[in-house]
Every structure is written in C-alpha cells, then in structure tokens.
C-alpha cells in the first residue's frame, strides 16, 4: 500500500516539475484548434458558401487534412515529451535518486510513459472541445464532425506514441543529452536516408532505373515513424485502412517491449557515457559508418560527370576515416582516441565496398529484368520522351486493358525487344551518353517506361532508352490494339456522363503554339466534340502514326477525381494530375470538321511567307563541338520547312535528328512569335 501511495506521489511530483511541457503543448493546440478555427470559419462564411460546403471544409480542418499545424504539433510534442521525460537518465545524481526509491523500476518507467501520453492527449481533447464550441456558435456543428475528429484523435495518438517511443529508445541507449537527441534523429531517419542513398546508387549505375522503387524501399521508409506518419495521412474522406491501424499497434507494442527491456537492463552508471550499452553502441556505430561511407563514395563519384571508380574509392576512404574518428571521439570523450577500434573502420569500409560493388556490377541483374509472360498479371508500355510518368492508380477499364495486354504475345515480344535492344549508358566528361550495345551511335533517342504487374502482387517499373529509329516500328505496331489505346488514353474509358460533367476546359493548340478554348459554357457541345475525337482516336492505327504527323494537340482539363489520378508523391503529399494531352492527325476527319465549325484551322506546316528566321541551336558539328546557325535566306528556309517538327505536336515517333533543334520565328496576325521545333533526320540539309 505504501508503495502505491509513494508511486502516486512520485507521479504528482514529476508532473509538477514538468508542468511546462503540457502547458506548452496546450498553448500549441489552443492556437491550432480554437484560434485558427475561428479565423478559418469566418473566412469560409465570408465567401458566401452554402452550409454543406462550410461543414465539409471545417470537418477537414478538424481532422488535419487541410492544415499542416496538426502534423507539426504531433511530431513536435513527441520529441519534446520524449526528451524531457527521460532526460534524468543522463544525470547520475538523478538516476541514483530515482533508483534508490522503494518503487520498482517498472513502475517508474510506466508512470513516465503514462504522463508522456497524457501531456499530448489531454490538451488535444480539451482544445478540440473548444473547437466544437466554435462550430456551435457558428451554426455549423454536426455529429459527423465529432465522429471523424475523434477518429483523427486516435490516429494522431498512435503516431505520436510511435515517435515518442523512438525518442525514448534513443534516450535509453545513450548517456548524454546531445548524443540522445542525435540518436533520436538517427533512429527516426536512418531507414529513409539509406533508401535515398540506395536510390542514388541505382540511378547512377542502373541503365533502366525508372522510379523511386527498389525491393527494400517500402520497408526502409516504413522504419521511420515520421515518414510513415506523413505518407499515411488520410484523404478528405478520412478513410484509414485497417492495415495502418494493425501495423501501427504492433509497432507500438514492439517498441514498448524493447524500451521496457532496455530500461530494466540499463546500468545506473551509464549516465554520463555516450552510449549506455557498449555492444549496441558498436552496432549503431557500424550502421552509421556504412551509411556515411557509401554517401561519401557516391558524392565523390559525382564530382565529375564521368563516374570515376578512383574518385569513389577516395570518397570511401575519406568518409570512413572522418566518420570513424568523429564517432570515436564522441564515444570515448577523448581526442586522443580518434582512431580507437580500427577493426570497426575496416569492417565498415569492407561492407560499404561490397554494397557499392553490387550496384557497380549489377550482381542481381536489375537491368536485365524480364519476367516470363505467364508470371505477368498486367503490363503497361508508356512512351515518354521528356521524363517518367508519375506512379498512380489506374481506372478500372485501364487496368483491365493492361491485364489483357499481359496475355498478348505481340505485346510481350515488344517488351522483350526493349529489354534486349536497350541503349547502354556511357558516362563521359560531358555527361551521360547513350550508345547501342555494339558501341555505335543511336539515330535519335526515345524513352519508354514499362510497368510490370506480377502475379505475386508486386509492381516493377523499368525505363528503357531506345534507338528511336530501330524501335519505332515495334512501338507503333501496338496502336493496332484497342486494348493498348485504352491502357494509355484515359479519355477512351470515360463514360458519356463524365465527358459532359467532368471536363472543365478543352483547348486546341496548333503547330504555331496558338491556343483556342472550345465550347466554353456549353458542356453538351463539348461532350459531343470529345465523343467525335474519341471515335477518331480509337480508329487510329499503326498506319496513321507511320504516315502522318500531328497537326494539333488537345489539352483537356478535368474536374478533381474524374481521372482517378490522385496519388501520393515521393514526399507524401496528395497530388492530382487532372490534365491530359492528345494529338490530332490529318485523318481525324470528324474532329477537323467540328473544329472547322468553330473557325479553328490547323495547318499541316509553316507557311514560307510567315517564317522570318530559323535558328538551329545546340547543333553538333562533325568535330563534336556545338554551334548555332541562323537562317534568314528564303530559299534555305523553304528547303528547311519540310524537316521541321513543332515541339508542341511532337508525338515521339518522328525521326528526329539528335544533332539539332530549331527556334522558328514567324509573323502571325501582326505579331512575331517563336516556336520551338525539332528537325527530321532524313536528308537533313547541310548549309
């Protein structure tokens, strides 16, 4: 009985000494919920929005999906309470005092964990209740607000405890305050930092690296409660998957057990030492040194555009010596011990060298990855000359089309061709240079991304730099398949209702880069036009792409969510791509007829009388240097016109010369305009 009374007394005494912690957190939540809530509600109501919209917006505010302040409060509170609550472990006097009390160490630990949770939960709930008062006085209070905001409270508490326990773990492993804070940073971000480093090696040494996706990426990122917290932020509907709850609870239980075990095993004399456990300290030192050594090697490898093994070796050795020396000085507390435990440095350098060698030699065959057709569940082939398409969910019909393609032998043959005939990167002092396997120069470069959906449920991305001329025929042949067009064109899978109600703007752009908005204020006419264009698009085949060049481009702007292209990017924020571009060809008779009714003309080429000059820039001469050539002579301009491909209407399949780009200056409607173009390679005139 006496022990229970004394335990409660210690709890009250600890609360008195740390009262500034919940007070500071309460102030933060007061500014986050009631104060900002009043300002936000007044702003919403001043816009004369209907009550339903105000209620929806304010509900998003209460659940934190529209403000970063709740995220900042959760993470900041976890660090504050974790450091302040267990800082006494770093003082021998305080440690001896607490451990001399007639209370079991388990109760002291449990009391502090309970206080750490209450410091966050109590101010949160109190200020959330004040936010409800703001809703009631504003006349927008609804029961759904309470339900969703309380679910949000539980969600925030879960991630708060995860980060809090990681900070506590760092304090238990160390014996000095500064080392404890640094340890918390290392434990929190080691996984994501290692993932970023591995991604850097992959992009440096793998020719087909196409996205932030390695086998270990999700696991390494999941080791950080901060990254997991940001990535798992719910959307506007605040639907939290059961998997998030399950993994979060299991992680909390594991961290609690680990912290409890280390607390019981932690010697009292550890206070004042850099690391409380010698062996664990060496493991952490090893992990830190390997990370720094690899990062240093990659940094020095990138000093020049040409990837240099010599510079990488120098970076590995320099990074290893510096990191090992700094860590040893921190651990030992003596500058004379800068090179203590040299065996640790040797093990770290060897490990880093082996890891680098795996990437350098592509030991696991990353670039040669090509699954058997029977192991494919779906497959997508996307031609993109300017970059990598964002990873995102696909519409149901698009996904179905990709599943059909996985069973199509012709599609698989194209993929096998891409893998076998991909260009290989050669790093030169002038940057990356792509060559064929036999070392010869490609005739133009095209980037193709392939998405492999495996039967195991894993999705794999690869990017292939291809010789434009050699792969043109294989890629164009895919357009004979309706399934392929449905997989790459979301417009092909939209319903009539979505065409009429889900499209905000339709803009047509000519080769002169002139833009014309169509059917403004007439959704029905706009939908009819898109149906006509879609009919032309689905009739387009390989012959069209072989024999015709685009004469215009459609830019379609959709309302949020219509394309179902909302995704979480690499930083964890919600982003939406609600814009699509489509090309118009001379054989699109239905489309051109409707454009003619709107007085929109799409010329197939630049007119001689309107061209003022053509400037060829970044044009490689035969000796490898670059030179600019400006052409003003009308006869030469006339000779050049058939070879110009407007950058606005470049579909990626033209035989573009990699030896020159062009800036065409034209006089259009009384104004001078400049249009960026590429130059076709066949019979390229030499002036």
Tell me the structural class.
Answer: alpha+beta
Strand content: 15-25%
Low-confidence runs: 385-393, 565-577
Proportion of helical residues: 40-55%
What is the number of helices?
23
Number of strands: 16
- Give the strand order of the largest sheet, numbering strands 1, 2, ... along the chain: 13-12-15-16-14
Can you tell me the overall shape?
globular
Separation, N- and C-terminal Cα atoms: 101 Å
What do the pLDDT scores average to? Answer: 83
Note down, in words, how this protein is organized.
- The protein has 687 residues and is of the alpha+beta class.
- 53% of the residues lie in helices and 16% in strands.
- The chain contains 23 helices and 16 strands.
- The strands form five sheets. It has a five-stranded antiparallel beta sheet with strand order 13-12-15-16-14, with helices on one face.
- A hairpin with a 2-residue loop joins strand 15 and strand 16.
- Helix 7 crosses helix 8 and helix 20 runs antiparallel to helix 22.
- It starts with a helix and ends in a 7-residue tail after the last strand.
């Amino acid at each position: 009985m006496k022990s229970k009374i004394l335990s409660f007394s210690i709890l009250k005494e600890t609360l008195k000494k740390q009262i500034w912690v919940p007070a500071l957190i309460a102030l933060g939540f007061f500014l986050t919920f009631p104060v900002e809530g009043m300002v936000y509600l007044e702003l919403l109501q001043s816009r004369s929005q209907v009550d339903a919209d105000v209620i929806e917006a304010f509900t998003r505010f209460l659940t934190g999906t529209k403000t970063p302040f709740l995220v900042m409060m959760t993470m900041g509170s976890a660090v504050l309470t974790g450091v302040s609550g267990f800082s006494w472990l770093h003082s021998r006097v305080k440690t001896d005092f607490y451990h001399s009390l007639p209370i079991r160490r388990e109760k002291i630990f449990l009391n502090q964990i309970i206080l750490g949770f209450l410091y966050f939960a109590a101010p949160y709930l109190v200020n959330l209740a004040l936010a409800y008062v703001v809703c009631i006085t504003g006349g927008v209070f609804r029961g759904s607000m309470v339900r969703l905001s309380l679910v949000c409270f539980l969600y925030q508490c879960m991630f708060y405890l995860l980060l809090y326990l990681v900070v506590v773990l760092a304090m238990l492993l160390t014996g000095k305050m500064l080392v404890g804070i640094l340890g918390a940073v290392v434990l929190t971000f080691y996984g994501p930092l290692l993932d970023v480093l591995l991604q850097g090696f992959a992009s440096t040494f793998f020719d087909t690296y196409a996205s932030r996706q390695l086998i270990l990426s999700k696991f390494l990122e999941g080791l950080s409660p901060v990254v997991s917290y940001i990535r798992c932020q719910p959307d506007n509907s605040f639907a939290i998957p059961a998997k998030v709850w399950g993994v979060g609870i299991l992680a909390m239980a594991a961290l609690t057990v680990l912290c409890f075990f280390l607390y019981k095993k932690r010697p009292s004399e550890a206070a004042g030492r850099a690391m409380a456990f010698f062996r664990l300290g060496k493991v952490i030192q090893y992990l830190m040194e390997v990370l720094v050594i690899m990062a240093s090697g990659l940094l020095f490898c990138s000093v020049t555009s040409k990837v240099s093994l010599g510079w990488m070796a120098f970076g590995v050795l320099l990074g290893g010596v510096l990191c090992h020396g700094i860590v040893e000085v921190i651990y030992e507390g003596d500058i004379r011990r800068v090179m203590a435990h040299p065996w640790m440095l040797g093990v770290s350098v060897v490990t880093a060298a082996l890891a680098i060698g795996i990437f350098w030699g592509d030991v696991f065959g990353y670039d040669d990855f090509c699954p058997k057709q029977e192991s494919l569940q779906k497959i997508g082939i996307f031609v993109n000359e300017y970059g990598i398409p964002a990873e995102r969910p696909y519409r149901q019909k698009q996904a179905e089309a990709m599943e059909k393609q996985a069973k199509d032998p012709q599609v698989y043959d194209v993929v096998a061709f891409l893998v076998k005939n991909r260009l290989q990167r050669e790093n030169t002092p002038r940057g990356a240079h792509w060559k064929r396997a036999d070392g010869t120069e490609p005739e133009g470069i095209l980037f193709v991304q392939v998405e492999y959906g495996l039967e195991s449920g894993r999705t794999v991305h690869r990017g292939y730099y291809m010789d434009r001329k050699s792969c043109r025929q294989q890629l164009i042949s895919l357009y004979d398949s309706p399934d392929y067009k449905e997989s790459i064109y979301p417009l092909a899978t939209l319903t009539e209702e979505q065409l009429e109600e889900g499209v905000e703007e339709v803009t047509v752009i000519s080769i002169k880069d002139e833009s014309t908005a169509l059917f403004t204020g007439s959704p029905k006419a706009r939908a009819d036009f898109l149906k006509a264009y879609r009919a032309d698009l689905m009739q387009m085949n390989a012959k069209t792409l072989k024999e015709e060049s685009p004469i215009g481009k459609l830019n379609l702007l959709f309302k949020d969510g219509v394309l179902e292209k909302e995704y979480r990017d690499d930083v964890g924020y919600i982003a939406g791509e609600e814009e699509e571009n489509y090309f118009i060809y001379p054989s699109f008779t239905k489309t051109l007829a409707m454009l003619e009714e709107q007085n929109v003309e799409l010329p197939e080429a630049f007119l001689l009388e309107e061209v003022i000059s053509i400037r060829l820039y970044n044009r490689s001469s035969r000796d490898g240097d670059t030179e600019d050539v400006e052409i003003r002579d009308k006869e030469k301009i006339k000779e050049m016109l058939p070879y110009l491909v407007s950058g606005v209407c470049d579909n990626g399949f033209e035989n573009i010369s990699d030896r020159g780009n062009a800036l065409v200056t034209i006089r259009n409607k009384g104004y001078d305009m400049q249009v960026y173009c590429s130059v076709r390679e066949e019979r390229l005139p030499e002036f």
